[in-house]
Amino acid sequence: DTVYLKDYQSPAYAIEKTDLDVAIYPGESFVEARLQLVRQSGLVSELALDGEQLELLAIEINSQSLSKDQYRLDDGKLVLIEPPERFELYTKVRIQPEQNTSLEGLYRSRTIYCTQCEAEGFRKITYYLDRPDVMSDFTTRISAAKSECPILLANGNLVEQGDLTDGRHYAVWHDPHKKPCYLFALVAGDLSVMEDHFVTASGRNVDLKIYVEEKDLDKCDHAMASLKNAMRWDEEVYGREYDLDIFMIVAVDDFNMGAMENKGLNIFNTSCVLAKPETTTDAGFQRVEGVVAHEYFHNWSGNRVTCRDWFQLSLKEGFTVYRDAEFSADMGSPTVKRVEDVAMLRTHQFAEDAGPMAHPIRPASYMEISNFYTLTIYEKGAEVVRMLANLLGPELFRKGTDLYFERHDGQAVTTEDFVQALADVSGRDFSVFQRWYNQAGTPQLEVRDEYDENTREYTLHITQSTPATPECADKQPFHIPIAMGLLGDAGEIALKLRDEELEDLPTDNTHRVLELTEQAQSFVFTDVPEKPVPSLLRGFSAPVKLKFAYSRDDLVRLALRDSDGFNRYEACQRLALGVIEDALAADSGGELNNFTPDERLLAVYQQLLQEEGLDRAMLAYMLLLPSEGFIAEQQSVIDPIAIHRARGEVAGYIAKALHKPLLAVLENYDLRKPYKPTAVDIAARLLKNTALEFLMREPDQAVVDLCVKHLQQANNMTDELASLTALVNSRSPLAADIAPQKLADFYAKWQDESLVVNAWLALQARNANPGGVERVEALLAHPAFEANNPNKIRSVVGVFANANPVNFHGGTDADPEAGYRFLADQVIALDSKNPQIAARLITPLTRWRRYDKQRGGAMRGQLERIKHTPGLSSDSNEIVSKSL
Ligand code: ARG
Ligand code: ZN
């Protein structure tokens, strides 16, 4: 069934009050709901409430049991026939949280009962109008055995608690803020708590509590510090204060996504909240900081102002990702954060936008909303908000968000409402800009330049085009802000546009933003003393592909001298990509004939390694070759095996040529320095581990010894894991001889730390050396693997299919399709247990059109196999049928 945005109708009834009583027993739970319903419009002959996998035990309207002609149970619906204008609906249902492997609704993760309701999980708890524009006042009573579940939590404030007979007890929570049911949460279990508090700008004391299993109490400090930083930051940057007396976070091991912003009671995947130096990498620390902030920021962008319907998902997610990205930028290095986010966007979101599941950030239709928690909704959505913020500038943007929050507080609204608030405070016309919300696909800019020595005029001719996507073949032009500067021999050139009075542009001297709103436009700069190199799309000012015929000398100039850090990185990537493409062109049947990489790449790297004051993380990212996934995105027909070979060849060459300075990085690194997750220290580790990875490509015994020394003496997981990874990935026999033992030692040391075991599984699933399919099959059979745990599945199956292209697409020696078959087998096995995760795993196969006939055909064959699985979930069915 497809749902369409154009069919939206406001709800026939409001639910003014929602009273829940959830009684948890071993193997079954009982939910009694009392809903105060009030008709919103004219006559309603039938009212359909959502409900799935519920066993209805009792139903009453205004305390009268219903007869069979007053209601019926349809597929997933409870239909009330001729309901009164205002009434109390009472239902009692039985559910089985212990059997709930979908991790939606009320389920049990290890010893903890918890809920996940977004988007449509509440209907697995009770009959309800499960849609975000129905906002209600919730009271929740939970009861359970005191020994099993000493802690009972729900949204809002605790209003009552006490003991019952038979060793049971109860707690009653009331949430004073009206909310849609997707923000409902409850938790019951044996949890330990870390407590702190925060005083808001206006003086409200807020109790902060992080609930975890006792064994994890030593891993909560970073999340708590991040939470307090986020609370302060949202007050300072957006003027947003917290609005309850208590804020709780609960960590559970089985969770489909990263975390969930339930009002006052965020529920987190352990991977996004637990952190300590010995077990968590720098990337892990950063993820915790980012996700804690993201969920906290939702309290305003999502909860106080929510979505009218699920087509508006990016209203809260795009905005909140933008907010958390700016927060992380402020806590660390803004340029580094930008580089990381853009690399991810261009590799993965661009691929989504070019594939069969491409959709606008506000889709016009969907079959299964869970499939739309995508990189497009989240990351591209954040890019669109970033463009708006940059077009307005900080003061106006703040005015606009203030107006948005004030105007729509307590409402369920649309993306137009958001843009309208920004238009109202700025007087800007965003009618063309709105197309970013309604058209999918990545626009491509083609830029050509022209310099006239006589008139000293320099012209940029810019055209845009966007490839057809499934929902729309013919794209209208986008409004594209292009931040730019011009680099001359002597430095940056002052920018004066010829038709200045016609252009409404900022006047600052060497940096400005051109606004492209038509299919083709030219911008003429005057008084340009020499032919410059243009630095375009600085800071990645729009989520587009840029084509400009840069010479390699141009790129060298940009890499070494541009004032924009992002574009320096970008120039290095382009230079490296060009050299890898040279290697691809020289590849005939696995032999690289007469290939020597362009020396300018090495020359740039050498200079960067010597540059004083260059951020170590930026240096690391500038040295890092584009990933195989990113290179693949640039090819018209992807040959993953050739890409792997070409990139490896260039990397090996760099490792040899830069042996000395890379070794110096390693030797200068202080292994004993106490771990801190500060930007400077993270950068130092990133650079050291990048150098180590290069050196371990073709190491001598001394380098291998150094790697082992780093593995053994590391005082933190970042260094320990990087050393083990470098050892395992190395193709050198010197490394291969000892890698298996080191892997076994690592497991023996960390087998009781589930999150470390995930990393151990993932590093093997990512290993590009031959034999990948057999390796992941062995991992599935390993005692460390848990077949129902999403983190474990992602670490093995997800990582293999997405981050090990040479093995996924290469299969085994005996069977070139073994990787595809492996993935399809896993999807089919998982689909009936956890459809959300199964559907997500399918993604790499959906890209079959990007490969040659044989590979593409084999991938397609596995999609067909999945499609014909009896009882396939609607989640998987949507992905498969749209991609065939
Ligand atoms: N709103 C959550 C977040 O972004 C994600 C929840 C997604 N849940 C799901 N079942 N798809 O923070
Ligand atoms: Zn979110």
TrEMBL record:
It catalyses: Release of an N-terminal amino acid, Xaa-|-Yaa- from a peptide, amide or arylamide. Xaa is preferably Ala, but may be most amino acids including Pro (slow action). When a terminal hydrophobic residue is followed by a prolyl residue, the two may be released as an intact Xaa-Pro dipeptide. One of its GO terms (biological process) is proteolysis. Residues 223-436 form the Peptidase M1 membrane alanine aminopeptidase domain. The keyword Zinc applies. Its cofactor is Zn(2+). Keywords: Aminopeptidase, Hydrolase, Metal-binding, Metalloprotease, Protease, Zinc. InterPro entries: Aminopeptidase_N-like_N (IPR045357), Aminopeptidase_N-like_N_sf (IPR042097), PepN_Ig-like_sf (IPR038438), Peptidase_M1 (IPR001930), Peptidase_M1_dom (IPR014782), Peptidase_M1_pepN (IPR012779), Peptidase_M1_pepN_C (IPR024601), Peptidase_M1_pepN_C_sf (IPR037144). It is an enzyme of class 3 (hydrolase). CDD domains: M1_APN. Residues 871-884 have a biased composition (Polar residues). SUPFAM superfamilies: Leukotriene A4 hydrolase N-terminal domain, Metalloproteases ('zincins'), catalytic domain. Residues 553-884 form the Peptidase M1 alanyl aminopeptidase C-terminal domain. Its EC number is 3.4.11.2. Residues 856-884 are annotated as: Disordered. It comes from the Bacteria. The keyword Protease applies. One of its GO terms (molecular function) is alanyl aminopeptidase activity. Residues 23-183 form the Aminopeptidase N-like N-terminal domain. Belongs to the peptidase M1 family. Aminopeptidase N is involved in the degradation of intracellular peptides generated by protein breakdown during normal growth as well as in response to nutrient starvation. This is Aminopeptidase N. It comes from Gilvimarinus xylanilyticus.
